[in-house]
Amino acid sequence: MKLKNIISKWTYVVALCAFGLSQYSCDDFLEREPLDRVTPELFLNSENDLASYPIAYYGSIFPTHGGWSTGIGRFDDHTDNQATSNASYGYYVPGEWKVPASGGLGLGNIRDFNWFFEQVLPKWRNGAISGNEANIDHYIGEVYMLRAMENFDFLKRYGDFPIIRNTVRDVHGDLVEAAKRAPRNEFARFILSDLDSAIMLLNNTGNNKVRLTKNAALLAKSRVALFEGTFLKYHKGTPRVPGGPNWPGADMPYNSGFSINIDSEIDYFLTQAMAAAKEVADGIDLTVNSGQLNPDIASSGAVNPSGWNPYFEMFGSRNMGSYPEILFWRDYDLELNITHGVSIYIERGANTGLTRGFVDGFLMKNGLPIYAAGSGFQGDVTIMDAKEDRDERLQLFLAGEEDLMESISKAGSSNIDSVAKFGVPTLLNLEEVRDITGYRSRKFLNYELDEAPGSDLTCTAGSPIFRVAEAYLNYIEASYVKNNTIDATADKYWRAIRSRAGITEDYNVTIGATDLSQENDWGVYSAGVPVDETLFNIRRERRNEFVSEGMRMNDLKRWRAMDQVKDYVIEGFNLWDQAYDDDLYKDEDGNSLLISDGGSTANVSAQSLGTHLRPYQKVIANNEVYNGYTWSKANYLSPISFRELQLASPDQVSVENSNLYQNPYWPSEPGASALE
Which InterPro entries match (predicted)? Predict the structure, then answer.
């Protein structure tokens, strides 16, 4: 079986490979011993064995497109960037998120990776693995990176966490000992050490970047280091940071000798982020943006889907490996029935939408915020007005009334205006494919006629996982936070990012015109206090570059940017100035189908609430976010289940003696709400 087929079968391999011993190279499957006879002595002895092992974990560790949705285009839901039909009560209604009564930490993958190392590393050191030496190194490097990324998820979720380097016997005493939580900075250093091993062993050759690469590991290292460095900086002085007031780790006997120089740790991680980001960014240019905002249409009505704008096309390409900017991606295959529904759902609405706060944050092409004198902002009576002369990322990825969503050939009609163009948002569709805010992202759309021609799950465009633009932005942010200046490298990267976006390269124009009091962006704040204008605009650049790519929540958490979020109302497009009168919202007799009375059948918010659609103020009754989002301190970290706290205790009952400790502001009681 070809490598491409192995990659495409992520989900199938995961189902077959719940434990390391059940994993095989598809190439040699028929030559293998029966499953009930497999032992370490018969497995992981060859290059092919090692090649097969990491693939089983790609799907669980690297989220990608899949199923009935817009894939990773939904990952920014429940932030100030993007909203879906049902608000996250757990995040934004104090008291709704509870301490789970049961549930583990999810260490199965870590156990499998540690088992791999215990079997492979002695053989590797002794030269006992057959095959190409460089490839053997590469596959071992993949597992180091996979363990690092799995642990990074734990770092983001829990902060302090056990460092587990070996498989642990299923004996209670061993499990209790292994449950000791390392301070988060030490855990983050362990993750970086795994990434250093991966960087040393991985290469960038072959496989069209559908397998992990050295560049991907460098980018991952910059991501982890930036996350931890900025988390420590902005959460400093809270119990979420080791050594901070009321840090729960201080009460644990196993931390009795712990000490930390927090400023030194911050500097260390930011330095690591800069170095790793620069190493990958200096060698790879950004994909070109042609400036063309829609594909051409042939006389037949068919869209010419390729060659019109490489930057837009990159996100919906079936061969992302051809773009140097893409460092790692997932491939799909219709023949193997490894598909998704992204393009067809973008064409329909997808039960999600960008927010007004996000859209308003994009600059004009002249580099000015929309509120600045002389900006040239055309208002937002229509979506096309809102996009006029704006940052081309907004113009490309936000669907406006005149933008193409599909070719008329695909739509089966000769009327391009009513079928192929976006028109007004589809507010009245079934919930699954409704425009929630009216601002629909078309990032990841593929215009090929055979991309989902009739079935929702026949899309085969790739799913990007790592791209070099992040390295540019990681360096800019890390260097400024560390040194409080824009150095020559950051200047070069920032100008390149802005140039591709079609904005004037001089970021000082933007900084000088920025009025933080007029920015509807949670990234204005850290710890409830506004940051300076330069840092905010670095954050703005990151926000705007990663439209619908699932980066926002992690950024907001590490920046501690939600302390001030109280009664924050999500808004969408301008409905009540003009769009409400569109024929799409009327029945055949010309009567409006929009219901805005606040009752149980309401489908839009009332005009009296404002001209812009408010997706969570349509229905009044039983609506706990009607008055807006409110954040709780505890939500920056997840609670550990009550049962898991018990199991890490010597008597398996008393949580007071547990080697695990509950996260700040969370009680150690099942079903209890956050304290703050």
Answer: SusD_RagB_dom, TPR-like_helical_dom_sf
Distance of CA 440 to the CA centre of its chain: 18
Which pLDDT value is given to residue 287? 98
d(C-alpha 143, C-alpha 256), whole Å: 33
At CA 11, angle to CA 9 and CA 12, rounded to 5?
Answer: 65
Under the banding of pLDDT at 50, 70 and 90, the label for residue 420 is: confident
Specify whether the CB–CB gap between 460 and 333 falls below 8 A.
yes
Q: What is the Cα Rg of the chain in Å?
A: 26
Q: How far does CA 62 lie from the centroid of its chain?
A: 10
Instruction: Name the nearest CA neighbour of 147 among 44, 217, 214.
Output: 217
396-401, long-range: CB within 8 Å, 24+ apart, which pairs? 396/289, 396/293, 396/309, 396/311, 396/312, 396/442, 396/443, 397/312, 397/441, 397/442, 397/443, 397/547, 397/548, 398/354, 398/359, 398/439, 398/440, 398/441, 398/442, 399/439, 399/440, 399/441, 399/442
CATH code of the domain made up of 47-72+104-282: 1.25.40
Q: pTM for the full model?
A: 0.92
From CA 669, how far away is CA 101, in angstroms rounded? Answer: 8
420 contact partners, CB below 8 Å, separation of at least 6: 297, 301, 303, 404, 405, 406, 407, 408, 411, 413
326 backbone dihedrals φ, ψ, rounded to 5°: -80, 120
SS3 labels along 73-88 = HHCCECCCCEEECCCC
Report the C-alpha gap between 361 and 353 in whole angstroms: 15
Buried/exposed code over 549-561 (b: 16+ C-beta within 10 A; e: otherwise) = bbbbbbbbbbbbb
CA dist., res. 469 & res. 284, Å (int): 9
Residue 181: the pLDDT is 95
Reported as a single tens digit per residue, the pLDDT across 277-303 is 999 999 999 999 999 999 987 766 667
pLDDT at 117: 96
| pLDDT at residue 10 tops 80 | no
Which of these, 386, 343, 392, lies nearest to 367 by C-alpha position? 392
Q: What is the pLDDT of residue 243?
A: 93
Residues 6+ apart with CB under 8 A from 129: 44, 45, 46, 47, 50, 120, 123, 136
Residues 6+ apart with CB under 8 A from 452: 341, 343, 344, 458, 459
User: How many angstroms separate the CA atoms of 180 and 164, rounded?
Assistant: 10
pLDDT at 407 (0 to 100): 65
Please tell me the distance from the alpha carbon of residue 351 to that of residue 117, in angstroms, as a whole number: 43
Asked if residues 630 and 465 have their Cβ atoms less than 8 Å apart, the reply is no
Is 275's pLDDT higher than 60? Answer: yes
Query: Average pLDDT for residues 627-631, to the nearest whole number?
Result: 97
- Measured distance CA(194)–CA(144) in Å, rounded: 5
Give ∠ CA 194-197-199 in degrees, rounded to 5: 110
What is the 3-state secondary structure of 89-106?
Answer: HHHHCCCCCECCCCCCCC
Distances (CA, A) of 463 to 38, 328, 500, 550: 34, 9, 21, 12
